[in-house]
Amino acid sequence: MANLLSLAPEEHVVEVLDLRDYEQAKYLVLATRNGVIKKSRLTDYDSSRSTGLVAITLRDEDGVVSAQLVDDEDDLLLVSKMGYSVRCHADDATLRPMGRTAGGVIGIRFKTEDDYLLKMEVATPDSFVVTVTEGGWAKRTSIEEWNAKGRGTQGVRAMRLVEKRGGLAGALICAGDDEIFAIASNGVVIRTRVDEIRAAGRDTMGVSFMKVGDEDKVVAVAKSTAASMAALESVEVPASPTEVAPEGEAE
Questions:
Q1: Sorting pLDDT into bands at 50, 70 and 90, what band is 251?
Q2: Which of 235, 242, 190 is nearest to 216 (CA)?
Q3: What parts of the sequence cross the membrane (predicted)?
Q4: Are 107 and 33 in contact (CB under 8 A)?
Q5: Which DSSP symbol is given to 217?
Q6: What is the DSSP string of 160-203?
């Protein structure tokens, strides 16, 4: 990544998007830690500048936490560290497109000063919202339990949290046959299919998903889609160049 972008010491990559071209989607939406979201045309980023482009003007020590490709008919789901969430339309009436250097608008407001935006995802139909806490508790909830409303509200619970289970470590939109990876601070990683996680309503606490010690916590959650796993399994791995055919069998 250092060969592609010139990052300042305090900067780090928060999202990588797979693009065929700049017509793949109509818009790029960015979301920040302070709950700001900004939509701009994807074609605005069609540039060969090796130093990159300014994608959003940040205020008050804010930082980007998520980026998604969207079209007019899509909905966005924003989830906070303390388990609150907002689903809103991505159409121009709700979220008007802005120039690259604009600062954006409020996507979600927080109930407490210590809360912040954890993740923004595209709310795909017939999917699940998988939430995992720092203490290793998890659940999956049908996306249909979220109604699309206007942006800029405090939203509804995505998961009921209690202090001993920690805040949210991850919130992802997944299909039932996707797989989830959870990584703990002690380096332990577990992997499971989404449809093996207990289904529960929005305002519930979930069930034990990953055992973590008193001094450890879940620090990251990632998904692998069924399509990407199938594509990976279909790749033929060439023989190692160190492998030599037995004498007399070489072509």
A1: very low
A2: 190
A3: none
A4: no
A5: -
A6: ---GGG-SEEEEEEE-TT-EEEEEETTS-EEEEEGGGSPB--TT
Question: What tokens were used for 118?
Answer: 């954890």
Stated as kind and residue range, the H or E segment containing 65 is: strand 64-70
Residues 147 and 123 sit within 8 Å (Cβ to Cβ)? no
Handedness of CA 71, 27, 32, 91 (dihedral sign): negative
SS3 117: strand
Contact 139, 206 (CB under 8 A): yes
| Contacts of 116 by beta carbon, 8 Å cutoff, 6+ apart | 33, 34, 35, 80, 81, 110
pTM of the shown model: 0.86
Task: Kindly state the greatest CA–CA separation across the chain.
Answer: 75
Residue 222 CA, distance from chain mean position: 8
74-119 pLDDT per residue, tens: 999 999 999 999 999 999 999 999 999 999 999 999 999 999 999 9
Q: CB-based contacts of 18: which residues, under 8 Å, 6+ apart? A: none
Superfamily of structural domain 27-229: DNA gyrase/topoisomerase IV, subunit A, C-terminal (2.120.10.90)
Contact 123, 130 (CB under 8 A): no
Length of the chain: 251
Contact assessment for residue 188 and residue 141, using Cβ atoms and an 8 Å cutoff: no
Could you give the CA distance from residue 176 to residue 179 in angstroms, rounded to a whole number?
A: 8
Between CA 82 and CA 168 the distance in angstroms is 6
Q: What is the pLDDT of residues 5-31, one digit of tens each?
A: 777 788 888 888 888 899 999 999 999
